Amino acid sequence: MTEPSATGKIAIAAPPEKVYSLVSDPGALAGMAEEYEGHRWVGPAGATVGAKFRGSNRRGLRRWSTLSTITDADEGKRFAFEVTTFAGLPVARWQYDIEASGDGCVAVESTWDRRPGWLRGPTSLFTGVWKRDDANRANIAATLARLKTAAES
Question: What pLDDT, on a 0 to 100 scale, did the predictor assign at position 73?
Fold first, then answer.
């Protein structure tokens, strides 16, 4: 796999299983993320490989939805999903890696921009984000800070 287009990491004074339970729950994740604000399951609910959820996203007045398919669900270690447009076009991969460390863990959030070149302009216009990698780095930093707070409380 290529290098992520945006990534961040944070030390958390909580067990890896607790951190995993937060990032693998699309509802909990929505409470910590910047643009992602909610979901509904498409088919059977649950954080298992192959499960799908429709994500609701928002940036200012702009709103859009995506379809996510869970690709990795290794409890306490990794949770990841591939995001597509409503038409099935690739958008991104989001991945959370968790590694035990001392009396807690280190969480790494990464994303890969999967949009074909021709789709970047239209999606940027639609979402209002022209520098997606920069925006995602800032969003990841904010999400990880909220994850730390939630896991340590």
Answer: 98
**Residues 20, 98 contacting (CB under 8 angstroms):** yes
Instruction: Extract the residue ranges of the chain whose pLDDT is less than 70.
Output: 1
Side by side, the strands of the sheet bearing 36-42 are 6-12, 104-113, 90-101, 78-84, 62-74, 52-59, 36-42
3-state secondary structure of 34: coil
pLDDT score for 128: 84
pTM (global) more than 0.90? yes
In one-letter notation, the amino acid at residue 12 is I
Q: Taking a C-beta distance cutoff of 8 angstroms, is the pair 76, 98 a contact?
A: yes
Residues 6+ apart with CB under 8 A from 84: 66, 67, 68, 69, 90, 91
User: Structural domains in the chain?
Assistant: 6-152 (3.30.530.20)
Write down the pLDDT at residue 36: 94
Residue among 34, 30, 58, 64 nearest 135 (CA): 34
